Amino acid sequence: MRVHRADPIKDARANMVFAQLKTNGVTDKTILNVLDKVPREHFVPVTSLPLAYGDAPVFCDIPGRYLFAPQTLGLLLQNLNLLPNDKVLVVGGNYGYTATVLLELGCKAYVVESHPILVSKCRDKLKKYHIEIHSGPLKAGFIQQSPYRSIIVELGLSSVPDSLVEQLGEKGRLAICLTASENDCARACVFEKTHDSLTEVFAVEANMPPCTEFIEPEHFVF
Asked: pTM for this one?
């Protein structure tokens, strides 16, 4: 008689999709299927493995650097209105999870990562994928491949950086978590660019610690 053994990782991923995504407004079936497929546990540090499928951001080696909580990522992706072959830049690639999700969604993903440890981890995790990884300052983006249809800033910042908005195409969308201070709740937001102005098209309360890597304050007026 064949015995079916439980797969705790697969069960955790399925529970993430049901309990964190479907019940909190993520309804796009393509996004749900991809998030149920990509092994999130492969894209976090060993010390963070027990938290890979939790409902909070996952720490990625460097202070201020976190992987989006599943619900936050799902809602942001849904409100970017992504289409196949869209060019999407991930600012702060961490271990490459978000870029992999974008690739599975049919997008052309690009990554800019600044910290040597995370550049190395990201390149190692994404070596079998056709994803270009640019090593450089996060606030500089990856201008060589711009303009982008969407930009995902996987950081908790106090404002939308002008330098990244400039790399967004007309009617393009930018996803980011905005937070005023360490003690304030962040807002996961999506903005749309029209004639060099930004309009907020989506926002929800989120959990994302602030990142201090953007030392010089930059503010885009919208």
From this structure: 0.92
